[in-house]
Amino acid sequence: MPNRLIAIYPGSFDPLTNGHLDLISRATRVADHLIVAILKNSQKEPLFSTADREDMLREATAHLADVEVDSFEGLLVDYAAKRSANAILRGIRAISDYEIELQMALLNRRLRPQTETIFLMASEEYSFLSSRMVKEVFFLGGDVSPFVPAAVLKRMQSSFPKKR
Ligand code: ADP
Questions:
Q1: CATH no. for residue 44?
Q2: Is 20 noted as a catalytic residue in this protein?
Q3: Does 152 fall in a domain?
Q4: What is the pLDDT of residues 88-121, one digit of tens each?
Q5: Does some domain include residue 159?
Q6: Ligand 1 touching residue 117 (CB < 6 A)
Q7: What's the structural domain count of the chain?
Q8: Cβ of residue 20 lying under 6 Å from some atom of ligand 1
Q9: What is the DSSP string of 89-136?
C-alpha cells in the first residue's frame, strides 16, 4: 500500500487570509490528511488569540474534507513526529520567501529527515497577500473583504468595532 501523505501546514495565521485558504484547498488535492497548525509563538504578540485563530480556521475550512485545525508549541519537527506527519507544507509567494523557507526546510531536514518539506507556489491573485498587509489596511480603515474569508472579516469587525 502506498504511503499516506500526512502534511502539516504550520503558520501564524494571524489572521488567515484568502492566500492561506487557497493554499489549503489546493493542498487537499495532494495530501491524504492536512493538519493546519497554529504556532504558539511566545515572542510574537498576536492580534488574535490562538483559540480565536483556531475558530476562524475551522469555520473557513469546514467545507474541506480531511483538513484538521490544531495548534502547537516548540519545535515543528517534534510536533510532526508526534502527529506521524511525513510532510511539512509551506507557500512561496516571491523570491523573498524563498530564502527563509529554504533555510527552514534545510534545518528541519537536518533535525528530522523523515519529514519532507513540500512547497506550493502562491496563486497569482494572492501572491501579494500577507496577514501583515491585511492588518495594516484594516487598521487604516480600508476594506479587507476581498482579502480574507467571511469568518475572518466578521471576527475582525466584531473584535475591533471602531474600524469599519
Ligand atoms: P509565518 O508567520 O510562519 O510566516 P504565515 O501565517 O504568515 O506564517 O504563513 C504561513 C505559510 O503560508 C508560509 O509558508 C507563507 O509563505 C504562506 N503564505 C502566506 N501568505 C500566502 C499567500 N498569500 N499565498 C500563498 N502562501 C502564503
A1: 3.40.50.620
A2: yes
A3: no
A4: 999 999 988 999 999 999 999 999 999 999 999 9
A5: no
A6: no
A7: 1
A8: yes
A9: EEEE-SHHHHHHHHHHHHHHHHH-TTSEEEEEEPPGGGTT--HHHHHH
